Amino acid sequence: MPLSSVAANADEQAIPYYQSVGNECALFDQAFQQRLPMLLKGPTGCGKTRFVSHMAAKLGKPLYTVSCHDDLTAADLTGRYLLQGGETRWVDGPLTRAVREGGICYLDEVVEARKDVTVVLHPLTDDRRLLPLERTGELLEAPDDFMLVVSYNPGYQHILKSLKPSTRQRFVAMSFDFPPPAVERDIVARESGLEPDRCAALVNLAASLRAMKGQDLEEGVSTRLLVYCATLIGAGMPILEAARATLVEPLSDDADVQEGLMEAIQATFG
Known about the structure:
Layout (H helix, E strand, L loop, with lengths): L2 H12 L9 H10 L4 E4 L6 H12 L3 E5 L6 H5 E6 L2 E6 L1 H8 L1 E6 L6 H7 L8 E4 L4 E4 L4 E7 L12 H4 L3 E4 L5 H12 L3 H15 L12 H12 L4 H10 L6 H15 L1
Helix pairs in contact: 8-9, 8-10, 9-12, 10-11, 11-12
């Protein structure tokens, strides 16, 4: 094999796999080139995080991923003074490192973070592209190769945890959903190693279970869970056992709901 082919294969392996379903890759690339922040909206497990990892690798930029939660504060993103070796030193947070060094800072489920996080993000999401660090007195200007990306699940969040219009309108936004059946089958097959025909049955099952969202389920079956299920099946676990562990137990604790899910699974696989 020519050395150029070896290098190309190595580059492909270094980039996390992502199967595009529209113009999302081109839009992300343009947003990065034009120094625009991006907002990704979509259900849990539909590929938002994988997409960001894929694009960061394609662009050759470091990725700083933060999983937001109720206790996440602005200081967790920007940094704080810590006692190290008997002296107090400032330690940058992931957002500050991305601004100083360049790269993509991805805040997953940003609405879960505390309100002071939004205040820090605002000057980074307009033409100023500034990060003020009150504790150190610095005012950092983001370099051209810095990009802020945030995501959330609008169908799951309580109204008190939705993004304000004044914040949403600071971002270029894209809506994500689960891939079309043929694409999702290929994704599950590639990620799990299970034969595509067997993955197709799982994808069809997922469509049935997703139809239950809003009735008995808060969330539908994610592509991630389908990959888990296919992986266990490929490793030799009986289908019904694998399905219970990946498509039933993670989705509900209610015994009646679990029974309904198992009935749908048994109807598909027998």
